[in-house]
Design a protein that fits this description.
Blueprint: E1 7-12, E2 17-23, E3 25-30, E4 33-37, E5 44-48, E6 51-57, E7 60-66, E8 69-73, E9 77-82, E10 85-87, H1 93-106, H2 117-134
Parallel strand pairs: 1-9
Antiparallel strand pairs: 1-2, 3-4, 3-6, 5-8, 6-7, 7-10, 8-9
Length: 137
């Protein structure tokens, strides 16, 4: 990786350490929108929303579908604590497609006041994200 400025990235779920390594940059879907991190970034704590997380390592982009959680950014380290995180090539596209179809069937029949509305909406967002990320290298 020569003299590229690097930051340590850790992606952690309740089950395991999903990724730990040196990266050139990372982009995260935060609660206020996407944000990028390079070495020397100002300290930051952000909620992480359902979406794509990507990073560049050795000049190559890597993609993950992540669920809600938190990101802690220091000048030389980013720690992402997420409910779930899946690398693009590990996503079960058929399972994601079925989850998307199930949520799309249920959601229109529900009112926003329904106790399960947010759960079903989040399931739809996760499925859409997983399908989109699974198409990336």
């Amino acid at each position: 990786m020569s003299d590229e400025p690097v930051v340590i990235l850790e992606i952690v779920t309740p089950e395991k350490m999903v990724f730990s390594g040196k990266v050139e940059q990372v982009t995260i879907q935060g609660s206020e929108g996407q944000f990028g991190v390079l070495k020397g970034h100002a300290p930051l704590l952000s909620a992480v929303e359902i979406g794509e997380l990507n990073f560049t390592r050795d000049g190559k982009k890597n993609y993950y579908a992540v669920s809600t959680g938190y990101a802690e950014v220091a000048s030389d380290k980013v720690t992402v604590l997420a409910e779930a995180a899946e690398r693009s090539d590990m996503i079960d596209r058929e399972r994601a497609r079925r989850a998307k179809e199930a949520a799309e069937t249920k959601l229109p029949k529900m009112s926003r006041e329904d106790a399960d509305y947010e759960r079903v909406r989040a399931a739809l967002m996760r499925a859409i994200t997983r399908l989109g990320v699974s198409e990336k290298p």
